[in-house]
């Protein structure tokens, strides 16, 4: 009978992960939840690039032009503050979730876990159960083994390729990507990136698997700093389960035995190969597969379920104290995103003066300043604008006052402003206004007009 280590030995533990982990398939309540969440996320990931809005791909990142097209809007590099805020919000939300429920992100929504379990599903369909797969690996090479290995790795490579294409569709128009790729009409750049991400998917989900979670993912290392006694994590009820040991079904439980029948199912279904009965370990990704396996065994022996379950201590803090820190950070980030969205404009105008000369006197005896305007149409429709000056009495605008910008166009426009000499002033502040001829909204930029002294 295996003895449980002393409490001081099981706060955190590591495992020998040098060998391959053969994950046993498991059905149950938490597996249904995971698959439902993963199905929704996968559908969003694959289908979103195919969604059209106003005749254009709804979401596309043009890396060459440094533009993000998103539901009829165009975000330029200067608009990417929203992504910094979005990532900040995601980080705080992840930390908040970790504080409440441990590494539940890793167990239910992390792409590494999602793709690893998909690859395992393919492995089980081709090689059989986890024991059959292990026996196949240990068997000498023969025709049946070779065919199964080829079939498994081919299916992994196909899934990796489709995953890579789905990802690249966010950068290359989806409606032409697949046809061009399989008809060999895509560029070398597209083939290179598709191959790179397909290889990453194949290695991470098929070959590395839990090694990524155990040794390469930084989140696994620092997540424990966000735990508190009330954090709900997957835990084994040692008081109820010990002493553990095998016994027959439908027979009386020996008086000295606990509810754990030492079936090892909780270890066999674990994606990272740990034994949850040895206490909290940093490798645990809170996936709940061991809970489903244990509950299944408890039902077979007519024992109460919940020997392994999500549990945490009663918090010593009030509800508002427990949620105040990360909750406040999330709220402030959301408010910052709302403020950014409120001030965002679909047209952008900036002005800079000619660096060669502050002013000149033209043939009509007027003082003339030259400016370069940078105009951006951040929509996916053509826009027509009217240029006007405010704050310069008697000023004459030389250069096109009516400007048309193509969808997502950004270009420079040179103008000159001329006005009679103002001997009393060195410069006069003014505002240049760009008004949308159809919509009526406008943007403005301020500068200074320098006079002859």
TrEMBL record:
Keyword Electron transport attached: yes
Source domain of life is Bacteria
Q: Does the record's keyword annotation contain Signal?
A: no
Q: Which InterPro entries match?
A: 4Fe4S_Fe-S-bd, 4Fe4S_Fe_S_CS, Cyt_c_oxidase_cbb3_FixG, Electron_Trans/Redox, FixG_C, Helical_ferredxn, Ig-like_fold
Task: List UniProt keywords, sorted A-Z.
Answer: 4Fe-4S, Electron transport, Iron, Iron-sulfur, Membrane, Metal-binding, Transmembrane, Transmembrane helix, Transport
Q: Which residues cross the membrane?
A: 32-51, 80-97, 156-178, 190-208, 324-342
Looking at the record, the residues that make up the 4Fe-4S ferredoxin-type domain are 252-279
Q: What PANTHER family does the record point to?
A: FERREDOXIN-TYPE PROTEIN NAPH (PTHR30176:SF3)
- Spell out the protein name for this chain: Cytochrome c oxidase accessory protein CcoG
- Gene name of the record: ccoG_2
